[in-house]
Structures are given as structure tokens and as C-alpha cells.
Automatic annotation (TrEMBL):
Biological source species: Nonomuraea jiangxiensis
Identification of the protein by name: D-alanine--D-alanine ligase
GO molecular function ontology, one term from the record: D-alanine-D-alanine ligase activity
Primary location group: cytoplasm
Cofactor: Mg(2+); Mn(2+)
UniProt cross-references to Gene3D superfamilies, sorted A to Z: 3.40.50.20, ATP-grasp fold, A domain (3.30.1490.20), ATP-grasp fold, B domain (3.30.470.20)
Enzyme Commission designation: 6.3.2.4
PROSITE patterns in the cross-refs: ATP_GRASP, DALA_DALA_LIGASE_2
GO cellular component: cytosol
Entry function: Cell wall formation.
The reaction(s) this protein catalyses: 2 D-alanine + ATP = D-alanyl-D-alanine + ADP + phosphate + H(+)
């Protein structure tokens, strides 16, 4: 869905675009001309695999190759930059970034380390706490602990106090998340999260409003910039901001700027930039906070490749801050093109 929005917004007089889909079986394919990018009749789009299969050879050269079984590979051309509008494991967790680094291809967004740490909520919180950002209380349940010492880890999680949120440590788009109110729900929630990731995070519930802020790398040596903060509210009856609330129509609302005291809004923006820099992010990120009834700002998480449809939170935050979606797409491509490949 995000890729569809980028394809609609990008300046075709400035860029030659090759849309690439990654199928559920891992094959890279040239997107079909009639590829569907939007939700229709409640059904999420999937990659159409009828196009030619693609390969990006390692060792530099940036050549994109198309091939079919029994035929000679055909070079489609040199790739200047990749815009990886992808979420979840093997997409925004440093793996695809590492592949592109090995191939010598520039790409939009954060590098291998920032992507990997940003994806792992446990390590992310460790880095943010070291950077002085206030975080909520949590417990990490690793695969070995769950298999060999389940009673102990459940007891540690219960010490956070109910209700708790149970999350896969390295999943995206709110996949596998549950809210637990007692021991039975907690155990079931951990098992559910483990379907997505053997490493699970249990977080204490925080009473407060969800405030999000987008961060964008600046050209040259200027510091990163933060958007106006916005408040997210779930409108579809869900108990928290889950997958349906994020992606299906009319399930959430966004108020920009959020109704906050000026000092709090500026503090939140500064904290968002600090989180961006603490992780060595590049390109873009969205940083999520809670604003509590007693006036505290608590860091929740950072997303190094946030939802990127034109109606997603980060693009809406930038649009309200004076940077419309097509200009945001162009800025990100130009930032990627200006960076050297390899270590930086």
C-alpha cells in the first residue's frame, strides 16, 4: 500500500521507476502493470507474481537482472537508489539493508545497525534509556526462558501489574500484540506473540495520550528536523492501536498539531530528534510517545521505516508541517542519493 502511494506521488519526469515486488515465497518480481496496491472489499493487496523474476547481483555494478526459466538473463539497467517501502522482519530490520550494502546500492532510510536495533524493541529501549529518554517498565521473555523457566518469567511479568501489553520483540505493524488482564490472558498472549517471534516483550500499561512525531534527516551538516507532534486516537472500537486501526479506513484519527502546552510540544520534538540521533538513523523515522495525565512525556518506540501511504501518520505529520507527500518522497530519494555507499 505504501509502495502504491509512492508510485503515485513520485515525479516521473525526474525519475525512471522500476517497481519491484517481493512475493510471499521470497521471489523478487517485476510488478505487473495491473498490480493492485489498495484495500478492496476488505482484502489487503498482495504481490502479483506474474512478472519476470529479478535479481540484484552482489559485488557492485548496481545492475538489475530479469530472468525466466530457461532463458538468458536480461539487464534492465543500473539502479541508482532503492526505496524499500517494506515493514517487518527481513524488510526494515537491517537484512534488506545489508543485502543492498553488499550490492553497492544506495537506499532510502536507515542503515543496517539502526534498522536492526530499531526493530528489536528490547535493544531499542536499552539504547534510548542510555540516551536519557524516559521509558516504561518492561520484561523480556526469551525463547529459552519460556521453554525452561516459564513460571519465573510469568511471575516477573506479573510484577509489572495488570493490564500489560505483550508484543513480539521484532515484528511490525502491531502484528502479534495483545493486552492481558490476568495470568491466563498473559500466558495466551505470550504464546500468540511467539507465533511471530520467539523473543517477546511484556510492557506495563501506561495511562496517557499517544503522541507521535516524525523526524527527517536534513541535507548537509544540518541537524535532523522534527515535525509538529500529532495525537493518534483509535476510532474503530479497538482497545489499542492495532493492525486494523493502522491500515483500514476510518479506524483512527490524527490531530496535528496535538493539543499540548508549547513547552511540552517542543520537549517532545527535541526528544524525537535525540532518539533519531541515538540510533544513528538516516532518512526518516517516526517516534512514538505517551503524554501522561501528570504532564510527563514517555518514550514508547521508534520506527525507522514508518507506514508510508499518503494517509499514514508520518506523511500526514510532515504535510501538516509544510512538506507535502510528493515533496517528502523526493526529499528522501535525494537524501539517499547524496550518501556514499558503504561505511559512513
Amino acid at each position: 500500500m505504501g509502495a502504491g502511494s509512492v508510485l503515485e506521488a513520485i515525479d516521473r519526469t525526474k525519475y525512471e521507476v522500476i517497481p519491484i515486488g517481493i512475493a510471499q515465497d521470497g521471489r523478487w518480481v517485476l510488478a505487473a502493470s495491473d498490480q493492485r496496491y489498495s484495500i478492496e472489499a476488505g482484502e489487503l493487496p498482495v504481490v502479483d507474481t506474474s512478472g519476470a523474476e529479478l535479481a540484484l547481483p552482489s559485488g557492485g555494478g548496481n545492475s538489475l537482472m530479469a530472468y525466466d526459466a530457461g532463458s538468458i538473463p536480461v539487464e534492465l539497467g543500473t539502479v541508482d537508489v532503492v526505496f524499500p517501502v517494506m515493514h517487518g522482519p527481513f524488510a526494515e530490520d537491517g537484512t534488506i539493508q545489508g543485502l543492498l550494502e553488499m550490492a553497492g546500492v544506495r537506499y532510502v532510510g536507515s542503515g543496517v545497525l539502526a534498522s536492526a536495533v530499531g526493530m528489536d524493541k528490547a535493544h531499542m529501549k536499552t539504547v534510548m534509556a542510555a540516551a536519557g529518554l524516559p521509558t516504561g517498565r518492561y520484561v523480556v521473555i526469551r525463547d529459552r526462558d519460556w521453554r525452561l523457566d516459564r513460571y519465573r518469567v510469568l511471575k516477573e511479568a506479573e510484577e509489572l501489574g495488570y493490564p500489560v501489553f505483550v508484543k513480539p520483540a521484532r515484528a511490525g505493524s502491531s502484528q502479534g500484540i495483545s493486552k492481558a488482564h490476568d495470568r491466563a490472558e498473559l500466558e495466551a498472549a505470550v504464546e500468540f506473540a511467539r507465533r511471530h517471534d520467539p523473543k517477546v516483550l511484556v510492557e506495563a500499561a501506561i495511562e496517557g495520550r499517544e503522541i507521535e512525531c516524525a523526524v527527517l534527516e536534513s541535507p548537509g551538516d544540518e541537524p535532523a528536523a522534527a515535525s509538529l507532534p500529532g495525537e493518534v486516537k483509535v476510532e474503530g472500537g479497538q482497545e489499542f492501536f492495532d493492525f486494523e486501526a493502522k491500515y483500514y479506513p476510518d479506524q483512527m484519527s490524527l490531530t496535528v498539531p496535538a493539543d499540548l502546552p508549547h513547552e511540552t510540544a517542543e520537549e517532545l520534538r527535541a526528544m524525537a530528534v535525540r532518539a533519531f540521533e541515538a540510533l544513528d538513523c538516516e532518512g526518516l523515522a517516526r517516534v512514538d510517545f505517551f503524554y501522561t495525565p501528570d504532564g510527563r512525556v514517555i518514550f514508547n518506540e521508534i520506527n525507522t521505516m514508518p507506514g508510508f501511504t499518503s494517509l499514514s501518520v508520518a506523511p500526514q505529520l510532515w504535510a501538516a508541517s509544510g512538506l507535502p507527500y510528493p515533496a517528502l518522497v523526493d526529499r528522501l530519494v535525494q537524501l539517499a542519493l547524496s550518501r556514499p555507499a558503504g561505511l559512513r
